[in-house]
């Protein structure tokens, strides 16, 4: 199970943490404000009131063992910077920072943030989908609770036919098309050329296949993520 820390429980961080948890991710939520911590404590695995600029606080919650840390601190830019530096120092593999401006984004990049997001460009729910499923390529919300999703075929699907996978019966999702790299047309310096394949029962999935599926949000969370 993926483990993700969310530091800063404003509107963005709160939405992110709750959506991640609902998607089956283990979430550690941290904020200085006890009210925000109390609001989310029943929705995540761990909710802690603490100062994220104190390395001892981060280590006390085993943040050095999380897969991703999202620093969603909004108003206190200095705290966000210090937390980012500490997160990198304790060895978190991926540190994602929320930036309120392009200038802030540039600073986060210079101090080692792996990814920078800006709330006006991405919602907490959207980021949560991407983080909860590392294979996710893209998605489109078709209706309330119903989504079209593109994701890379997980290892457990490689070499298996559509019939063997039984996606509809096992996961309650429908496979629409497969997007597959065209052999011999991939330039190392450019994005691979993809062809669209309409699947049939005996079609076997390959390592770099991208699957386009449709299903309920609940059903999509049950798809393998590795």
SSE diagram, text form:
Blueprint: E1 3-7, H1 11-22, E2 26-31, H2 34-40, E3 46-49, H3 55-60, E4 68-71, H4 77-89, E5 94-98, H5 102-110, E6 115-117, H6 124-132, E7 136-143, E8 146-152, H7 162-165, H8 167-171, E9 173-181, E10 194-197, E11 210-216, H9 217-220
Parallel strand pairs: 1-2, 1-4, 2-3, 4-5, 5-6
Antiparallel strand pairs: 7-8, 8-11, 9-10, 9-11
Helix pairs in contact: 1-6
Structure description:
This protein is α/β, with parallel strands linked by helices and 226 residues long. Helix content is 31%, strand content 27%. The protein has nine helices and eleven strands. The protein has helices at 11-22, 34-40, 55-60, 77-89, 102-110, 124-132, 162-165, 167-171, 217-220; strands spanning 3-7, 26-31, 46-49, 68-71, 94-98, 115-117, 136-143, 146-152, 173-181, 194-197, 210-216. The strands form two sheets. Strands 3-2-1-4-5-6 form a six-stranded parallel β-sheet, with helices on both faces. Helix 1 runs parallel beside helix 6 (124-132). The chain is elongated. The mean pLDDT is 86.
């Amino acid at each position: 199970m993926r483990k993700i820390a969310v530091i800063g429980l404003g509107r963005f961080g709160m939405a992110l943490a709750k959506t991640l948890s609902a998607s089956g991710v283990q979430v550690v939520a941290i904020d200085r404000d006890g009210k925000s911590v109390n609001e989310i404590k029943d929705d995540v695995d761990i909710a802690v009131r603490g100062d994220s600029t104190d390395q001892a606080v981060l280590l006390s919650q085993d943040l050095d063992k999380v897969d991703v840390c999202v620093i969603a601190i909004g108003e206190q830019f200095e705290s966000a910077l210090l937390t980012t530096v500490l997160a990198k120092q304790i060895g978190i593999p991926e540190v994602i920072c929320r930036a309120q401006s392009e200038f802030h984004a540039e600073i986060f990049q210079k101090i080692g943030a792996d990814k920078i997001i800006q709330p006006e460009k991405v919602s907490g729910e959207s980021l949560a989908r991407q983080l909860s499923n590392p294979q996710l390529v893209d998605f489109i919300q078709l209706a309330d609770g119903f989504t079209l999703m593109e994701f890379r075929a997980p290892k457990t699907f490689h070499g298996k036919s559509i019939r063997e996978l039984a996606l509809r019966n096992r996961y309650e999702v429908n496979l629409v098309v497969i997007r597959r790299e065209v052999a011999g047309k991939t330039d190392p310096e450019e994005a691979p050329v993809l062809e669209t394949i309409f699947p049939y029962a005996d079609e076997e999935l390959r390592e770099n296949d991208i699957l386009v599926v449709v299903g309920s949000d609940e059903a999509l969370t049950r798809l393998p993520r590795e």
